[in-house]
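Q: I'm a student working through a structural biology exercise. My instructor gave each of us a protein and asked us to get a predicted structure, then write a short paragraph describing it. Mine is tRNA-dihydrouridine(20/20a) synthase. I'm not confident about reading structure output yet, so if you can add a plain explanation after the tokens, that would really help. Here is the sequence I was given:
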Amino acid sequence: MMDWTDRHCRMFHRQITRHTWLYTEMVTTGALLHGDVPRHLDFNEEEHPVALQLGGSEPADLAKSAKLGEQWGYDEVNLNCGCPSERVQKGAFGACLMNETSLVADCVKAMRDAVSIDVTVKHRIGIDDITSYDFVRDFVGTIADAGCNTFIVHARNAILKGLSPKENREIPPLRYEFAYQLKKDFPALEIIINGGTKTLAEIDTHLQHVDGVMLGREAYHNPFLMSTFDARYYGDDATAKTRAEVVQAMIPYIHAQLQLHGKSEKGGGLKVNSITRHMLGLMAGLPNARAFRQTLSDSKKLALGDPDLLLQALARMQPMAA
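A: Happy to help. First, here is the predicted structure for tRNA-dihydrouridine(20/20a) synthase. I'll explain a few features afterward.
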């Protein structure tokens, strides 16, 4: 979810669900150890519970980065062993790490020794033409011995050569049964399933077999699906915000962010579109949703830098069911 689930996206999602865990986009150890730490790690207190996802393959660097995440207040640090992009592979991390189980174990141990918060791993069920369940079972068993108790299982293989990241999310077949079997084989571990889930019925089916479900693209493109999560999965019966209330809640946030970051020394700074672009899917499935998206994407209106653009988009939805 690089370039997708930034702090503005997470703040928007938090208006829809109070309890669902939010994850950062993947941040590389190099970006933290040799780059702008506040830019990568700063987040809004309202985002809790929030996890920092790291990309890297050097145990010492991951330990330092995990420590930074803990110091900045993250609730969890997650090691990405699932991203198949060639850019990530050149850095020798992501899905290609599944070829080096002992190295991943060393990374997890180093991170566990450095922090007191949870260290989790996100991974695929196999790589390239390795389709045996034994492969992912042995991977999870080895990493669990290093101190990891939570595994987020993207239930597809990662094809490291020949497929784009988008194709890697669509072409390799989903094998949810592998994740289900992991829970049977490792009942003491927390197994969370990821990949292709789009409906509440599908989530409910998964939860009969595993401990949790992670949504990626569906949460981004159809975010209001999450409005039922607090009551349905967390036992919180407090009334969820309507779509209109979510829009209205984001306006003061955008004003505050523009005041803090709206201008830079180089004349750039935060643009309204940096926040509103994450909200385009809020009205998915409703009449006039296209008009809502068009208003939020209007370059002339965006150039004015006025957060009340959201109210103009909302007006095009009237009358609207909650």
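A: Here are two points you could use in your paragraph. The chain is about 45% helix and 15% strand. Strands lie at 22-23, 27-28, 50-55, 76-81, 118-127, 150-158, 190-194, 212-214. It's a good idea to check both against the output above yourself.
Q: Great, thank you!
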